[in-house]
Amino acid sequence: MNSASWQCPKCQRDFSRKNQRHACGTGNSADVLRDRPPAVIEVYRAIENIVTQLGDVEIVARDRYVLFRSRRIFTDLSIMKDAVRLAIHLGRKVDNPIFIKVVDDGKQVTHVVKIASAADVSQLIPLLKEAYTFSLE
Known about the structure:
The protein has a single domain, classed as Aspartate Aminotransferase, domain 1, CATH 3.90.1150. It has 3 helices and 8 strands. It has helices at residues 29-33, 38-52, 125-135; strands at residues 6-7, 14-15, 58-62, 65-69, 73-79, 84-90, 101-104, 109-115. The longest helix is centred in the N-terminal third of the chain and has 15 residues, at 38-52. The radius of gyration is 15 Å and the shape is globular. The protein starts with 5 loop residues before the first strand and ends with a helix.
């Protein structure tokens, strides 16, 4: 991560805020995917492939959650039994029926979608790119 103002002395991860609350270490996505159906693993891999091509991205995996972070988290996943719940954090609201939930917290607008097929990931590429760019601001 670039332009960090603080590095955790225990895990050496970089953060933009001093003494950022976090769990040390980044975990392993293989642990999150263990014993998941092939379709769920394909969805995860498709998303990971897209976001890791956007630039300097840290992947943090815990339990059934995976966070993708540049200067801050720009998208996060919950691995479910039959789908991946994807939350994309943008600077604006996007009206699209694919989203099952949209939350504006005043700093960002989180768009949530459940994805059961890797083929459905491609329509989210522009929004993942936008979220990555927004996270660098």
